[in-house]
Amino acid sequence: MNSPLAPGLFWRTFLLILLLLAASSAAWLQSFRLFEREPRAQQLAAQIISIVNITRSALVYSDPIVRLALLADLADNQGIRIVPLEKTDDIRPVSDNPVATRASERVLEALGPRTRLASEVNGVAGIWVSFAIDADEYWVVIERDPLARDFGTRWIGWAVIAAIAALLAAAAITRVVNRPLARLSEAAGELGAGRLPEPLPETGPAEIATVNASFNRMVADLAQSERDRAVLLAGISHDLRTPLTRMRLEVEISDLPPETRGHIVADLEQMDQVVAQFLDYARSQPTRPKADVDLSALVEQALEASRLGSDATVRIERRIEAGVHVDGLAVELSRSLANLLTNADRYGRDPDSGRLELSVALRTSAGEAVIEVADRGPGIAAGQAEQLTRPFVRGDSARTGGAGAGLGLAIVERIARLHGGRLALSANEPRGLRVSLRLPLPR
Prior knowledge:
By secondary structure, the protein is of the alpha+beta class. The chain is 53% helix and 17% strand.
């Protein structure tokens, strides 16, 4: 089982694509640096060699009268100065990065082994290259260091744009790839919760189309099995009603001790309740249209019909908001309320005292009418809430006895979905079960 903190499939795929992009970019950048190193070293070496040769030739062959003007022009416009070389000069070698090292080797090959290169002399930075005129030695100082890579700032903007485009593309690709799986996951969740999902599209890649088609066939088969089971239950329940009624009549008129007659009648009533649940569950969708229903009055009527108020072992707290109306089917809503109250009466009593402390509330919240029935009984086990709304599933406390076939909450949940609402089960602090029936209010 996956950890609840584990990232979803979308984020896993997204991160994998990002890692692939990052690895590809790093490999491309390293390849570019390797292939760009030699051409750049050649270009820089040729530039330095040309500057030194041209400067030396200009000094050697220029008229002494214009030499000073030439030197001033080189310094002002080209950033090139001529400085006498002294034996006491404090020299800092050229940096040892691969491009500078390769360019220095080419400069020495072209200008001779006596040529010296430095990145700083006497605290002044630049490219310093020595040359000789007769017996005198000089430095050509190139103030704009061609060996220093100037990236500028424009690349930052382009890098940000490229990164954003890559992220958007990765997200779009991930969403397209994972959309069919996300739909399948949602449909499987709906089916696992006892609801029939919408058919999945049988298009796209062959693998996805095959899986969706198989899932749709499975859902159709399950729906057909559900319909067959409902028809079977309806038939059996209908056939049982007549002999049950006849048996009760025979017991009532028979000459049996009152205690024995009471036990037999109680057993027959339990059987009749099970049959009634079967009929309610097997009942097809109503064909009559929905109408305005006074939900406040309906809750009051359900409480009166349950006769819980006349039981000395029952204490009911009522918090019913007046004037709450919904569009629905009064008969089905009455049946759902009766099932909730019956369920609370059977399984919500205190296991020690046998008393039932019941809270029945009706309120409106966020466009919904909320009916809450809460008891202080033993409650249900953690993680069992969703299972109890499925047909023929009973909680641990319900298995100890009592009438019913595990259809009460399933019928309420089906009626809730029929009205566009939902049924929720939660713990009632400090103990017990809280059942919430939420129905949409008319707009």
